[in-house]
Every structure is written in structure tokens, then in C-alpha cells.
Amino acid sequence: MIYADNAATTKISDRAFEQMLPFLREQYGNASGQYSLGIKAKHAIEQARKQVGAAIGAEPSEIIFTSGGSEANSWVLRNVAEFYRDEPLHIITSSIEHHSVLNSCRALEQIGVEITYLPVDSTGRVSIDVVKAAIKSNTKLVSIMLANNEIGTIQPITEIGQFLHEQGILFHTDAVQAVGHIPVDVRELRVDFLTASAHKFNGAKGTGFLYKRSGRELSPLVFGGKQELGRRAGTENVAGIVAAGYAIEESISEMDEIANRLREMVNATINGVKKRVPSVRVNGNMAHRLPGIVNLGFNGISGGSLMHLLDLKGVYVSTSSACASGNDEPSHVLLALGLNEQQARSAIRISYGKYNTPDEVKAIVAAVCDAYSKIKANQ
Amino acid sequence: MWSIAGRTSLRSASDPTLKWSNCVEKKSCYVCGKEALSKSEIGLTKKLLDKDSKRFYCFDCLAEYLEVDAEILLAKVEEFKKQGCKFF
């Protein structure tokens, strides 16, 4: 098996796994408990909060653990809409956001919130000038992802954040694909809210976090106890939170070395496929991109078919289109780049992680090219 | 004005001979010539090679073409059915 879908999820690291295990067995106390078993669990959570805060340049008190990125994205958008519920509200986002942002925006439109979906250029970048032009007197929030999950394009968040800070407009970034993979510093980015998910950086599934700049308003997501700064009641996922803390710490310590390796793997993939399939198209931005993600378009074939043939060979990559039913919907991200529907359906995403090897890259290149040939030969 | 889809569904409802399965064109295997390929064989060709494919394969010939075991293809058919894929 060769797993190359690390933008979807990653294998938990050995260290994170070992650190979380005791909190599922020996140290299983409720972190609200006032006895030593509970106090140890509470201490472990606060330790993880420090680890996460340190990793992104935040104070521990600015970190709220969640179930993942989607929860946090949805929370921020709904929170702002709720806070400004008595006045006309305008929110800006981009057309290539994750569905947890886009569908939250669609839901807010149903209750009268005005949403502007910014276009991107042919490489998936949002222009600061486009952001500036979209600002209205009642714009209260801008939500732009730090890096795109399908094409890996990194947005000019620092530039946008600086501008929005000067305007006094709240800024949220979905950093799910970025945290643990490229340097992320919330002070430098000038963001008010940032979301991340632990299973994208070799933590466990079911845990993420929301960074909330000190002083910013955030209504409780769940009412009840005082967990998570009184904003998200319910017994904490102690094991998952502990794993998140160690996983992010490990990711930061290895970041430069792994990023270099991933870039080499991506370059080897592009060059290797291009040798046998010269018409292959690389979707996304070549300069501003995540180190491990490459999105390849193959004219005249279905990315879904390619993905399934690779699956038969034990190679796991993803397709940009949603095709569980035979009605493959073209990727909204690729359409936003200006690709036509056929081109948008022809793409696959290969996303490498720290456990991939150069030998696996060679095998993937061979498998992709072989599968492409099989499909083309049948046409 | 009725849409084409609307007219089709109305006719299907009143005419049992116009069931979807009866509308599927009879296909034969491009390699061995096996006739009357099953819906799963036709669906698998569409799913794995091209939804607009003009050539179709029986399970054994598709397995040979793709260089995989036929059992793997049969397992994939079950997966696709569980996903609700319209090809199956």
C-alpha cells in the first residue's frame, strides 16, 4: 500500500500515539474531576494548550480545542453573524474555501447576511486589491484560507491581515492544511481567528483547535460546564488533545527537513509524469504552494477513473471531484481557477506526508502513467 | 412545458416495458466477445475507464487488461453499489 492522500488525513505519529494512549487507559480521569486522576488529565490538556500556542505564536489562553477544523470554521462564521445580528452584516470569503466555510456562508445568507465570494487568479491566489475592493462599510469579517486543500496554493494572508487590521475588520483564516507544514505565526499573520485540525499534522482524528485573539468576542458553541474557556462545554477529548500537542510540537521541530523532502517528492512527481504524459497540467501556484501537495490534470480522462485504477494497485490518492454516485461534480476550486468542467473532472491530488519515501514516489509516477495509458488506450 | 426527463418518467410509470434495465443496450466484451455483459460489467468499465466508453469488458478480460485479480474487481463492484453509484 502507498498512501499519498495526506491532505485528507495523516497517520498518527508514533510519539503522539504513545503520548495519548495512557489517557485512554491508565489516566482516563475526567479533566473536571477534583481528585488526582482528573487533575492529571486537566494538566495534560493545559500542557497541550501550551504546546499548540507555542507552535503558532499564541498564548495558551487563546487556544480552544475543538473536534476539528470544520467545527471551528463554522463556529467563527456563526459567531460573528450572531454578534452583529441586529445590524446589516457583510462577510467576505473566497470562492475556493473548504465547504465548512462555504456552506456556513450559504447558511448565513439564508438569514440575511450578505456574503461576497472573492474570485482567485488562475493559480488560486486571492489578490489584496480584490479584497480591498470588496470591503463595504458594514464588512465585519473576512475569512480566507491560508492554504488550499486541493491545489496547495498559499494565500497572501500577512498582507491581507495587515490591511484588515488597519481597517478594524475581523480576520479569520482556515489554516487546516498549513499548520504543522509551513511556519504559521498568528501575530505575523495579523489574524483574529485561526482554525486547525490535528489529524492533518499527524495527530489523532476528532481534535482540532481554534485560535481566538485575546479580546475578541466568541459566544459559547456548547452551553454547560466551563470546559475550554467556558465556550465549549462537555468532557474533553483528553487523549486527542494530548496527541495534538505532541504532534504539533513534533511537526514544528521537523518542519524544515520534511518540507524539503516533500518538495523534492513533488518535483520528482511532476517531472516523472511529464516525461511520459507531456500534456499533464499542474494546477495551482508554483511559487506559493504547500510543500507536499500536487494537483495534476490529465486532459481527456476522468480523474475519478484514474484514482480508482490507482486504488486497484494499492495506491491511494484523491480526486478533486466528488464522485461517489457516478455523477462526478467538478471541483469548485478548479472551476474557480478558470478550468472548464472537463478539465476540472480530470484532476487528481497527490499529497505526500512525512512517511512517504522516494521509492514510493517512483512507484506512484509509474502507476499514474500506466493507469493513464490504460484509460487512453480504451478511448 | 415538460422536460425530457419529465416525459420519460411519466412514460416509464405507465409502460412497464420501459424499465431502465430494459433500456440498457446489450453489450459484448471487446476482447473475448462474451455477449450480454451484466450491468456490473458494463458499470465497471464505465467507472474504471470512461463513462462514455465504447468498448466494454467482461470481468475476466477487464481484470487481465488492468492486471489485477478478478476478485478485486468483484469486491470493487460491491463497494460501488454500497456507495449508491448509478452505474451499478
Characteristic terms for this protein:
heterodimer; A: 379 residues; alpha/beta; 7-stranded mixed β-sheet; 13 strands; globular; B: 88 residues; mainly alpha
Give me a quick take on this structure.
Helices cover 42% and strands 14% of the residues of chain A. Chain A contains 13 helices and 13 strands. Chain A has helices at residues 14-20, 36-56, 69-83, 99-110, 128-134, 157-167, 186-189, 227-230, 238-276, 303-312, 332-336, 341-345, 358-377, and strands at residues 2-3, 63-66, 90-94, 114-118, 139-143, 170-174, 193-197, 208-212, 281-283, 293-297, 315-316, 318-319, 347-351.
Proportion of helical residues of chain B: 40-55%
Number of strands of chain B: 0
Terminal CA distance of chain B: 32 Å
User: Most extensive interface: pair and counts?
Assistant: A-B, 17 and 19 residues
What are the secondary-structure elements of chain B, in order, as H or E?
Answer: HHHHH
- Spans of chain A of at least 5 consecutive residues whose pLDDT stays below 50 are none
- Helix share, percent of chain A: 40-55%
Largest sheet of chain B: none
Query: Could you spell the SSE succession of chain A in H and E letters?
Result: EHHEHEHEHEHEHEEHHEEHEEHHEH
Strand content of chain A: 5-15%
Provide structural commentary.
The complex is a heterodimer of chains A (379) and B (88). With 379 residues, chain A is α/β, with parallel strands linked by helices. Helices cover 42% and strands 14% of the residues of chain A. In chain A, the strands form 3 sheets. Chain A has a 7-stranded mixed β-sheet, sandwiched between helices. In chain A, helix 4 (99-110) links the parallel strand 3 (90-94) and strand 4 (114-118). In chain A, helix 3 runs parallel beside helix 4 (99-110). The longest helix of chain A is centred in the last third of the chain and has 39 residues, at 238-276. With 88 residues, chain B is mainly α. Chain B has helices at residues 4-14, 20-23, 39-48, 59-66, 70-83. Mean pLDDT of chain B is 79; it is low at 1-23. The interface between A and B is medium-sized, with 17 and 19 residues.
